[in-house]
Structures are given as C-alpha cells and as structure tokens.
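TASK: fixed-backbone design
INPUT:
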C-alpha cells in the first residue's frame, strides 16, 4: 500500500477557493437568467398596460365624438343668412357679395373661393349659356358640396347662398363674354344710326334756314315790284298825257 502524502495547508486553501469561485459563478449565472426573465415579464406587463391605455383612449375619443355630434344637434351653429336683394344690384337695394360674406378686407381669399366655385361648376357640367332657373338643384347641390370640401367655411352661409351667387356670377360673366362682340356690333350700329339721324336733322335745319332766307328775300322783292307797279301807273299816266299832246299836234297838222 502506497503512502499518500496529506495535502498541505496551501493546497487545501486553494481547493476551497476554487470551490467558492464555482459557487459564485453558478449563482451569478442563475441571477442573470432570473433578471432576463424578470425584465421580459415587466415588458409584457407594460405592453399589456399600453394596450389597455390605447383601448381606453379609443373609447374616450369615440365618446367625445358622440358627444360632439349630440351637441351639434342640440345647439346648431349660427349660420349667416342671405341679405335682402340681389348681389351686385346696389341701386335696387342689393348687396356686394364680397362684403356680405365678410371678406371685404381679404380679396385674395374671396378670389380663391370664386375660382374654386368656377372649377366645381365646370366639373359638374354647368355651361356658360345656363341660367339659374335652368340648372337642376341636384347639380347645384354637387357644386356646393365640392366647393365646401375645398373651402369648409362656405358651409356657414345658410342654404349655400354665397356659393349660389358665385355660380350665378360665373355663368353671367361667361354669357356676357360670349355675346360681347354682338353687343359691341349693335352698339356701333346704334351709334352710327344716331350720328346719321343727327346729320339728317342738321341738314334739314340748314335747308330750312336757307329756305327761310329765300322766302324773306322774296317778300322784300315783292314790295319793290309793288313800288314798280305804282311807278308804272304813274308812267302810264304820263304816257296818256303825252298821247293827248300828240293828239293836239295832229289836230294842228290837220288844220
């Protein structure tokens, strides 16, 4: 039987240190794993909480939306009524559309709205020759809706009266532009006829003036003829006296 030397104190100490290191390593490994599990658990809990909060937020938003709709039904917004008269006819008690819409200080916005309404009218088949009476209300309703989508503030004018006036202005201007050459031709003809009538009246007045002068001259000449006739009578009397003298001379010759 071989003799085995007992481990020294140093060896025993080193063995104990190694065992302690192994225990520490294993405990550290277990701790990191537990920490990862704990973190994953916390993340899952936070994700669940976030989903719950999102669901609650969606529910609250829906509730607010319903309350808002209910409020609109209960207390409708104040709409701007149409003024008395017709747009553009100020002398007849009408109104200026831009001022009536409250855009007297915002000409750019007013012109943009006019352009949007014109585009909507063209897109929905409104022709320049159309009149407001000839347009179908369904077509106009589509134009009004398209204009409101572009400019939501147009909805504050009761029964879309402002948009209707813009459509009316558009077709009126188009119709006027289409007949403008004919109107100018008629205006030129009217002016030419007026000028011709004026010249005719002037000529007639001149002829009358000339004829009046001739008549006056005739009256003056007639007076002279009467004087001549009177003188002629006197000459006849002288001739008669001379004839008497001649008769006396003849009598003397006969004697």
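OUTPUT:
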């Amino acid at each position: 039987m071989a003799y085995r030397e007992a481990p020294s104190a140093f060896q025993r100490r080193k063995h104990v240190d190694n065992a302690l290191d192994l225990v520490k390593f294993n405990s550290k490994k277990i701790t990191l794993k537990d920490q990862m599990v704990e973190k994953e658990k916390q993340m899952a809990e936070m994700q669940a909480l976030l989903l719950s909060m999102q669901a609650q937020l969606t529910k609250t938003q829906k509730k607010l939306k319903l309350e808002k709709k209910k409020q609109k039904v209960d207390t409708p917004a104040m709409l701007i009524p149409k003024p008395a008269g017709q747009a553009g006819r100020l002398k007849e008690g009408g109104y200026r559309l831009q001022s009536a819409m409250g855009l007297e200080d915002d000409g750019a916005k007013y012109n943009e709205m006019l352009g949007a309404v014109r585009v909507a009218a063209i897109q929905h088949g409104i022709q320049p020759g159309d009149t407001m009476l000839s347009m179908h209300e369904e077509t106009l309703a589509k134009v009004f809706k398209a204009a409101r989508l572009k400019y939501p503030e147009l909805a504050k004018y009761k029964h879309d009266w402002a948009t209707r006036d813009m459509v009316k202005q558009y077709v009126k201007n188009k119709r006027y532009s289409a007949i403008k050459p004919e109107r100018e031709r008629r205006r030129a003809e009217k002016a030419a006829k007026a000028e011709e009538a004026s010249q005719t009246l002037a000529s007639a007045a001149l002829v009358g003036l000339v004829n009046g002068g001739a008549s006056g001259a005739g009256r003056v000449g007639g007076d002279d003829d009467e004087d001549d006739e009177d003188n002629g009578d006197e000459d006849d009397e002288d001739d008669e006296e001379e004839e008497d003298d001649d008769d006396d001379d003849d009598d003397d010759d006969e004697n």
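COMMENT: The mean pLDDT is 76.
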